[in-house]
Structure formats: structure tokens, C-alpha cells
Design goal:
Elements: H1 5-16, H2 19-36, H3 45-62, H4 64-68, H5 71-74, H6 97-115, H7 121-130, H8 135-142, H9 146-169
Helix pairs in contact: 1-2, 1-3, 2-3, 7-9, 8-9
């Protein structure tokens, strides 16, 4: 673990772009690998651990929690550090009030962007992203087919991505 922890942390950080989540995934990688280490030839431990870490990260990114809850914060997180905070071994750093304030401001800005989308995308995006309603519920409420709602959500996300990119470049 000591030999490869920085490498595995870096791999996880490249996937999730959040130091705290990367630390958690690094720990999960080593816990998972510990149970199966005897199946791997010692000459390939490094490659195998990197693959385990990549799979853990992919599973995390595909999870419902990340897809439903974290998209509001993904665009607002500070730039990731290249390694864990100095003097720590996979320990969380003290939360920075300035970072929390900036995340809150960015979340409010994203909220405004979502609510400002033109119709029919604004209403569907607000119901899905901000009110956390299901596609079926939105379709029933608006009297539209589910496929239409899904299509409008896709287009709303494309518009949001474009707006966010434009703001970052400005």
C-alpha cells in the first residue's frame, strides 16, 4: 500500500476531480485488492491495482448518487491537487470556508441558468435537476410522452453545458 498509494490516489483523482472522493476511492481500491491479492502475480501488482482503481472510479461515476446528486457540484469544485495534502496519508483536509462559499455561489448561478433555459427545456430541467422528480412523474405532470421528456432533458443538458462553457471562457 505504501508503495502505490500516491499512484492510486492520482488515478482516482484523474477520474473524479475531487480530492476527498479520490481518497475514499483509494481506500476502497486497497480494501478490495487486499481480498484478492493472492490471485495476482507480484510482478503485475502495479498494473492490477491501477485497473482496480479505474474500475472503482467508473463504478462510482455510474452510481445513481453521482448522477442525481453530485452534478450540481461537479462544475463548482476547486481544481484538484496533484497529491494528498502535505503531511497526511489519505486524510481529509480541513474544509475551507472560502471554497464552501464559492461552491454555494456557483450552485446558485447554476440554479439561475437552469431556470433561465427557454421552454420547453427550462420547465423540464427545473423539475428534473432541481426538484429531483422522475422522468415518468414529469411526463405525467406535463401530459407529454416519456420519450419527449427524455429528449427535452438531453437537449436541456446540452444547452446548459454550452452556457457553462461560455461562462468559463468569458
Amino acid at each position: 500500500m505504501r508503495q502505490y498509494q500516491r499512484l492510486i490516489y492520482t488515478v482516482c483523482l484523474q477520474f473524479v476531480h475531487d480530492p476527498h472522493t479520490a481518497e475514499d476511492l483509494t481506500q476502497e481500491t486497497f480494501l478490495s485488492a487486499f481480498g484478492s491479492i493472492d490471485r495476482c502475480d507480484p510482478a503485475y501488482h502495479k498494473q492490477w491495482l491501477v485497473r482496480v482503481a479505474a474500475n472503482k472510479c467508473k463504478d462510482h461515476l455510474k452510481s445513481a448518487w453521482v448522477r442525481k446528486v453530485e452534478p450540481h457540484e461537479q462544475d463548482t469544485l476547486p481544481e484538484p491537487h496533484a497529491s494528498p495534502p502535505p503531511g497526511t496519508v489519505l486524510q481529509s483536509a480541513e474544509p475551507d470556508p472560502q471554497d464552501a462559499f464559492l461552491r454555494q455561489q456557483d450552485a446558485l448561478e447554476l440554479d439561475d441558468l437552469i431556470r433561465g433555459l427557454r421552454e420547453p427545456y427550462g420547465r423540464v430541467a427545473t423539475m428534473y435537476l432541481l426538484e429531483e422528480r422522475t422522468v415518468a412523474d414529469i411526463a405525467q405532470t406535463l401530459g407529454r410522452p416519456q420519450a419527449t421528456v427524455q429528449n427535452q432533458l438531453f437537449r436541456a443538458k446540452v444547452l446548459l453545458r454550452k452556457l457553462i462553457t461560455e461562462r468559463r471562457l468569458a
